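Student: I would love a firmer grasp of how sequence relates to backbone shape in proteins. I am handing you a single protein, as its sequence and its fold in token form. I am told such tokens are a discrete way to write the fold. I hope you can help me see how the letters and the tokens relate. Take your time, and here it is.
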Amino acid sequence: MQIHNKSFSGGLQGDDVDLERSVQGIDFDAVLAIARRQWMIVAAAVAAAIVLGLAYIFTAVPLYTSNVSVLIDQGNREVVQQLSTIGGVVDDEGSVLSQVELLKSDTIALSVVDKLDLTNDAAFASAGGSVIGTMVGTLRSLANVSSWFVVEPETSDQVEAKRRTAANTLLWNMEISRVGRTYVLSISYTSPSSSLSAKIANAIGEAYLVDKLNSKYEATRRASGWLQDRIAELRQ
């Protein structure tokens, strides 16, 4: 046992000696001499880093995020609680996630695009596209000489393609998240314009509420029609 301890201690001492020798073997004067000889390369690297930093500062676009919160309707919460007392704890996380996916759906996005007329909104178009894409589109329009004199009406396919593009841009810049374990959903939208972010975030929340109201109205209408048919059958 003592031999093992001595051998282990001796190994550590040997490592310390090797480390001390390696440190003593570094010639800092030689390192400084190499740096002096390559000062042009070092200066060029520093200058390039400064130029890139300044270019980023002057070209970077500030982004603004607007948040809106919506409360999920708990219409059937009592039924869920009754079921949980019978068959154990029932987690309704699935219903909450379903509402999250509904907010991310094309139906909500297209509704916002149509309501705010985002296909003809220059601020939205510039916020959604890249600089290179904008330049390419401008060059293509300039190269099309016939478009200088005649304004051709857009076809239905072109209009629908613009709607889809705007909806995809909206979904890309949108984020939906659940606030903890609550029934509150946070809607966030990010763009270079603070007013545009707020306008779109509010429109998304309103479109969601309208969709829920329409669903309830449709369900009520169908139930009312079914009851009227049953009453008519019973009277016969």
Summary: The radius of gyration is 33 Å. The chain has two domains: 2-59, 64-235. Strands lie at 64-71, 174-178, 184-191. Residues 194-235 form the longest helix (42 residues).
